[in-house]
């Protein structure tokens, strides 16, 4: 008899491995997310890259009632496999997905790169995205459009809340590099066309997803820091071309 599944704690690896050896064994995948969340965007990019079918459970920004399904972990993203295997924490989710998406475990070098993306690039990206009223408006437009009946309340409250995020990130992380500096650093880590060599790997898709979010939201001042100023334009186009069904499904 199989042991009861115990969801992982934040920042901790799974107490036991998932019982799946390939993506073809997955019967049902659900992503509990918040639209516009960079970590959630990255999870979707992994699914889209591997053409793994998945259902989206959108978190209500007012009631957050969908989190009742999780007994202890109360953040997004959360991924549920076959309705009984819950995996928490965006980095652990990506680490867990790597064998299913790429057919192999992420290497230590890739894990180090993903950590830098998660704890460096993502924070700087969020600080830049929420850095001006114009950028906040571009970000909130498509996010609030999908907020259902609560969007009228959120339109009044959200701008003020989001405006505090950028300064808070920078105050707590004074040593963050600029997006241009991160881009130049990662450009130096390319092993041919991609970080993983001839084909994109987990670090490629992780970084691509963050830049794609700013491109999709038409935050040109943000994306240009990495693609034009930082020299990752060719890499970005090469990764985008590797998505079998395109990248339109990432933002939903």
Q: In percent, how helical is the residue content?
A: 40-55%
Shape: globular
Class per helix and strand makeup: alpha+beta
Which regions contain 5 or more consecutive residues with pLDDT less than 50? none
End-to-end distance: 38 Å
* Biggest sheet statistics: 4 strands, mixed
Beta-strand segment tally: 4
Strand percent estimate: 5-15%
Which series of helices and strands comes N to C? EHEEEHHHHHHHHH
Mean pLDDT: 94
Q: How many separate helices?
A: 10
Could you tell me the radius of gyration in angstroms? Answer: 18 Å
Order of strands across the widest beta sheet?
2-1-3-4
Would you write up a description of this structure?
There is one protein chain. With about 250 residues, the chain is of the alpha+beta class. Helix content is about 50%, strand content about 5%. The protein is built from ten helices and four strands. It has helices at about 40-50, 90-100, 110-130, 135-145, 150-165, 165-170, 180-185, 200-215, 220-225, 235-240, and strands spanning about 30-35, 55-60, 80, 85-90. A four-stranded mixed β-sheet has the order 2-1-3-4, covered by helices on one side. Strand 1 (about 30-35), helix 1 and strand 2 (about 55-60) form a beta-alpha-beta unit. The radius of gyration is 18 Å and the shape is globular. It starts with about 30 loop residues before the first strand and ends in a 12-residue tail after the last helix.
